[in-house]
Amino acid sequence: MSYNGISQQVVSLFTSLRKLHQQQSSITSHRKKTISTAIQAYGFLCHVEIDLIDFRKLPCNCSNHHNWVLHVQDHFTKYSWILRLKHKETQEVASSLESLFWMFGFSTTLHSDNGKEFKSKVMTDFCAKHKIKQVFGAPRNTSTRALVERAHRTSKEHISNIIKELGLSPNNWCVKLGEAA
Ligand SMILES: [Zn+2]
């Protein structure tokens, strides 16, 4: 009798421990899933910063008359793309970004300053279409900051210096940038 009683207690204890273990393992696997997702969220094309650089003082000589440069930088790898623009119109910014993202993949987050070409409906729609989260505030990429700070002095000599530093020539910077991009 007593042996049978102990046996039943052991069985019920074993059963309740099993249930507890199952609950714990489901919590553990849930946690594991969350952690791995968080790690995956930080990598190439997770956080891309964009910035416009003014080249109006030195328009290119090609038939497209590029006046602006869109600097696109992946925050994780620091990899940069330089896209030439005719104007800093939101449609041109969005379509240039779209063709770039089709080649390399769409970014999860797009970080720009509060410029109207980035906050427009065209850009909001573009980001919604490709499930890109927009973040506003001064981009942190250092190479653009240095270029922009110098471009803000807006004298033709300063832009010429940037072009020289980049190893480009004033007349065909556009072609050379196209090759570099
Ligand atoms: Zn050009």
UniProtKB/TrEMBL annotation:
GO molecular function terms attached to this record: nucleic acid binding
Recorded protein name is SCAN domain-containing protein 3
* InterPro entries in alphabetical order: Integrase_cat-core, RNaseH-like_sf, RNaseH_sf
Q: Which organism is it from?
A: Acropora cervicornis (Staghorn coral)
Using the record's annotation, list all stretches that form the Integrase catalytic domain: 37-181
Task: Give a GO biological-process term.
Answer: DNA integration
